[in-house]
Amino acid sequence: MPLFEKGRLIEDTWQTARDEQPLPAGDVLVPFSRLAEGLGRNDGGRLGVILSVADKVEDLATALPRLDLVCLTFPIFRDGRPFTQARALREHLHYKGVVRVGGHFLPDQYEFLLRCGVDQVVIPEGSDPAVWQDAHTRFT
Question: Counting Cβ atoms within 10 Å, is residue 42 exposed (0-12), middle (13-18) or buried (19+)?
């Protein structure tokens, strides 16, 4: 799926670890349930974690210095918990890495995501990037 950052499309170089398959080499995103396994690898690649809305960002406190990316997931666009998770990562846990969101959200929510500390959004396949760019420039 297309990845949007700072109002433009970028290439996604991260691989996502699938359940019950060995972790791939290189930059890998692991589900929260496999974080310990990801932290234990030593192939030199970057590590990221995918959180669901049920996961507590506070549980990442000790691992955050070793994480390059945290991906938050919107189960439906009306569920605002990823906004709270992003704010908690930035303001309470002082996370300096990349915060990405995926799942079900709307272009109208893009600026609010940025205000909460999100760096990247995974836009739905087939979406018009111009709509997302417009959402980014609509508000100053």
Answer: exposed
Phi first, then psi, for residue 102 (nearest 5°) are -140, 175
Q: CB under 8 Å to 21, separation ≥6 — which residues?
A: none
Cα angle, residue 13 at apex, residues 57 and 127 outer, rounded to 5°: 85
Tokens 């955050």 belong to 64
Tokens of 10: 């970028």
DSSP string, 44-76: S--EEEEE-TTS-GGGGTTTGGG-SEEEEEESS
pLDDT tens for the chain, 140 residues long, are 789 898 888 999 999 998 788 898 899 999 999 999 999 987 889 999 999 999 999 999 999 999 999 999 999 878 889 999 999 999 999 999 999 999 988 888 888 898 999 999 998 888 788 787 777 777 66
- Contact criterion met (CB below 8 Å) for 118 and 99: yes
